Amino acid sequence: xxxxxxxxxxxxxxxxxxxxxxxxxxxxxxxxxxxxxxxxxxxxxxxxxxxxxxxxxxxxxxxxxxxxxxxxxxxxxxxxxxxxxxxxxxxxxxxxxxxxxxxxxxxxxxxxxxxxxxxxxxxxxxxxxxxxxxxxxxxxxxxxxxxxxxxxxxxxxxxxxxxxxxxxxxxxxxxxxxxxxxxxxxxxxxxxxxxxxxxxxxxxxxxxxxxxxxxxxxxxxxxxxxxxxxxxxxxxxxxxxxxxxxxxxxxxxxxxxxxxxxxxxxxxxxxxxxxxxxxxxxxxxxxxxxxxxxxxxxxxxxxxxxxxxxxxxxxxxxxxxxxxxxxxxxxxxxxxxxxxxxxxxxxxxxxxxxxxxxxxxxxxxxxxxxxxxxxxxxxxxxxxxxxxxxxxxxxxxxxxxxxxxxxxxxxxxxxxxxxxxxxxxxxxxx
Length: 430
What we know:
- The protein is mostly helical.
- 70% of the residues lie in helices and 0% in strands.
- The protein contains 22 helices and no strands.
- The chain is globular.
- The two termini are 40 Å apart.
- The relative contact order is 0.11.
């Protein structure tokens, strides 16, 4: 792309981020897509609408209350506590958010910059991940089913990850690092994987089943059996509690997220029962939960036929082996509903991308027309069942982003706390 064209596209992005997104996605140059992907996520971070009760608003309030007057000495002292997994009172639990909060509030004096910095970093790793999945396939003709899977992939915890900042940014970093290492065997990507732990400490736990699965990725039958058995397996927290380091941070997480007593089990059951009775739109009620519990599981059963095929498909086997291994792990650690649910979401990403890789290389398996037809029917059923999840992600975005993401984002910057989301604006108009 010429410098003049690039300049015009940057200007267009500043006039209308949405129109800029549509325009740059038509480009097939990976460097251009990466640059504008990062820019779009950064601008979107500046258009985040802070609503009471959201994770993003909680992060902003925390930044305003604890970082505006923080000195560098205090920042370093608390950074050490975070790196050694010792909880810091009233602060974030991860060094990543601690750093961008300090830079935004203490150095620049603008707490809202936390979502701009978070957007730039998320945008980089999400764009790199998307380009890795679609590598060398940007210009080829794609079937409608493949396009639908790619769209689902692009909406799966992508821009919406800006709300929580840490967990799903960590997911994209973890995904990019592990997949890149599997493709290239270059040691530099191990540092990328370790960076995911800095973004969210829970990736220390996610890394354990990943390493185990990685070493057994060619043992497809063993992984398949373990995956199938995991739906009937579980472990008690008491059996592993002695293996967990005793730090203040980990102990505080155990108190709020781990079922380690009958009273805790009853509390979580009552909490789930109350949540199920709340009136919600169908795509909220049956979106993510149905997707990870049923849709992805059904898709994985279809993919198992290819996973245990003699055809050697390195990328597909790695992605599916990782997805199955992580999903099996999530089935086993039900003593922590939070951990189990998050790992299941990460596993679902690997299984979804395994399907995209399979569709790119389907001719390797030399299937008959009847088998291809049955395979496509299975994929269509999965896509239909995933529609609530897609609508949930879409609704999430229109509640999170300013109306001025459509045109003149500068108005959003001037309005500040008086800004309105796309959903709010549509409500006023219609």
